[in-house]
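Deviation from plan, reported transparently: iron/sulfur cluster complex.
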Amino acid sequence: MTVNVLTLTIDDQQVSAREGQTIMQVATENGIFIPRLCHIEGLDPVGACRLCLCEVKGTPKLLPACTTKVSEGMEVSTSTERLGEYRKMILELLFAERNHVCAVCVSNGHCDLQSMAQKVGMDHVTVPYRYPKLQVDATHERFIADHNRCILCTRCVRVCDQIEGAHTWDVMGRGEGSRVITDLNQPWGDSETCTKCGKCVHVCPTGALTEKGRSVAEMAKQRRFLPYLTKMREEW
Amino acid sequence: MTPDELKTTAEKQREAVGKYPHRVHVCMAAGCISSGSDKVKDALTDELKKAGKDKCCLVKGVGCMGLCSAGPLVEVADSVAGNSVMYKNVTAEDVPALVASLEGKPVPHLLLPKDIPFFTAQHKIVLENFGLIDPDTIADYIMMGGYEALNKALTDMGPAEVLHEVTASGLRGRGGAGYPTGLKWSTVAKAGGGQKYVICNADEGDPGAFMDRSVLESDPHRVLEGMAIAGFAVGANAGYIYVRAEYPLAVKRLKNAIRQAERSGLLGQNIFGTPFNFKIDIRLGAGAFVCGEETALIASIEGLRGQPRPRPPYPAVSGLWGCPTLINNVETLANIPPIIRKGGKWFASIGTEKSKGTKVFALAGQVNNTGLIEVPMGIKLRDIIFDIGGGIPEGRKFKAVQTGGPSGGCIPEQHLDMPVDYESLASVGSIMGSGGMIVMDESSDMVDVAKYFMEFCMTESCGKCVPCRAGTAQMHDLLARIMEGDATMRDLALLEKLCDLVKNTSLCGLGMTAPNPVLSTLQYFREEYTSRLLDGGGNGRHPKTAAAAEVR
Ligand SMILES: Cc1cc2nc3c(=O)[nH]c(=O)nc-3n(C[C@H](O)[C@H](O)[C@H](O)COP(=O)(O)O)c2cc1C
Ligand code: SF4
Ligand code: SF4
Ligand code: FES
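Because the crystal trials were delayed, the predicted structure below was used instead.
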């Protein structure tokens, strides 16, 4: 199989890429970091969090780097002032949407939401906090789902469906009322499809899905299995 | 059915209808039925039998006659004299008088003059058969020239020629965005791969809009014919109509129309004796606004959660089950048969330079004549509201007209002389949209209007992307605070900042256009916002300070 190689510019840097790669993949290969939350290498991208939006010359719309395929001669800007402002605001919306109290969170210090805020320089929240009343599901023998800390990135849904093949997780509801659920909105502990593999816990960017028995700041996630599994599949 | 059989069917039906000296048409679209037209029709049939006139007078249930606010509407035609009269607000009690009037003078207190601008200023292409044919009788549609276009496309023209005519017509998508239909068809036609699909988007979720519903209820075969022609042009052999389950009458008539067309061989295998096969299935939507967005609609047909996905790839390249898919709005497809019958040039002669043809609007709100209208593109907003619509009731003053529903904007008095076309509406901060048109008078509160539409977007957001999901909720609450007189300049600034964010970073059209009602009311009625702010100039007109002043 021949692969077409093309060249493009990302942040004034000339780079080469294979046809079919996304902006995100090519940028990462070339040491350019683009903020992201819903995307994690190894799962199908969905373009949901909008943090990775980039400016592409000749296109009026901002394009998500995680889903947009590169093309010959493309000129991409990943970190203009305008993008920076949008990214801060999107993160503010996420922090205000649910109850993210970092100081008492098991994932404090190991959280993608936190680290992304640091990376884009979001140091305070200007939109009103919404303080929704949400549940914590601790029915599972090994794991806890705390909806107060969920950012609806659907990484858990995708890893469970695409890698584990169980499709225990899904999303119900609409708009602000959206929520991730196990099986047909049954308690996680009663789930008949969950294999207890824990992949969802480890891809979850925040303290929404955690292992039981962890105290504040103890829940670091292991993500190395994902690229490993993807590579194994490709070579299979 | 062969082309000859099509002709004889038309002639036979013309004879069958023509032998009656009198014909009574009763509107049987959802609007009139809800005000009792079905009872009127039954009473007419009974009364005619009683009076022994059922052999000389035909009673026919027909599609929407347009002036829904005056329903139930009844039209009585005299084939001998060649004229007809229209009656409004007819009840079953009026039926004996109507029957008695058949050979004499019309019933004066029910008369609806037919020479008012509401009827005369319209230009009907999509609605040409409305009020004339029985939507449940395929022969009625054929009598009016129905399926001739499909016959012409299949037997006289080829796919390339059909594409050429549609492109030459200048028709643009009536689903909202106005994308050139010919270009879309050519893209799907060129896409490789064997299986392709045609989808008719009948999700119609804009509040106050009922154009597509009326077309499906009043002239369903027109949409089937348009889809079959589209399938022929792009190389698809299967089509889906995605219609919301809240339209039970439309669904019933569509099902019946599909069955009749299949039985007549106008859908199915070897249509008109050619190698062309085309079948149409109905899929019911559960009424989510976002399922009208093409990628969400496709996901929904596939049995998945109705959520949009990033484009590209566009459905034309990768749509239903990954196959190239043509997706068009009901009204877009309803324009196709006349374009093929009369030619693209004819269609292009109507309308303006960049917006060809006509547009159907659902005229609603504070205007005397509410209902369904079809006007040529380029008509002035003022003519729609004050001539066709008959102006504002009770002599109140006009304030704004809202087009495009939750994705559109409010247009004030100073732009009323602007022509109605895609570009002009966009240039004043609104959009053509699918055809909802809500007239507002001086009593309307523009912040409330903006809040209403924001609430709609907030509850209809699919929840996938952050700016739309969380942003619309924040904007809604800010608008509520402004309404209550609890907000400050800082809140207004935040609202504007969120508008910019949500517009530019959302994944699909719902989020991208959700700020429009706020932006356009801010542009034209900013003072209604600022006068409510706690620190907005302090003229005390906002509720809180006004109340406080009273207490003092
Ligand atoms: C939130 C949203 C809702 C939509 N709803 C409808 C709808 O109800 N009917 C429709 O025809 N198009 C709707 N559209 C537009 C469709 O995505 C698509 O552009 C259209 O069906 C294409 O048909 P056309 O080219 O004939 O206009 C909607 C778009 C968005 C973003
Ligand atoms: S539980 Fe975690 S992984 Fe799943 S959607 Fe929420 S934040 Fe994302
Ligand atoms: S813009 Fe709104 S409706 Fe569209 S994908 Fe995002 S959340 Fe869903
Ligand atoms: S990382 Fe691309 S949209 Fe979330």
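Residues A 36-39, 47-52, 64, 66 surround FE2/S2 (inorganic) cluster (ligand 4) (CB under 6 Å). We consider this an acceptable substitute for the interim report.
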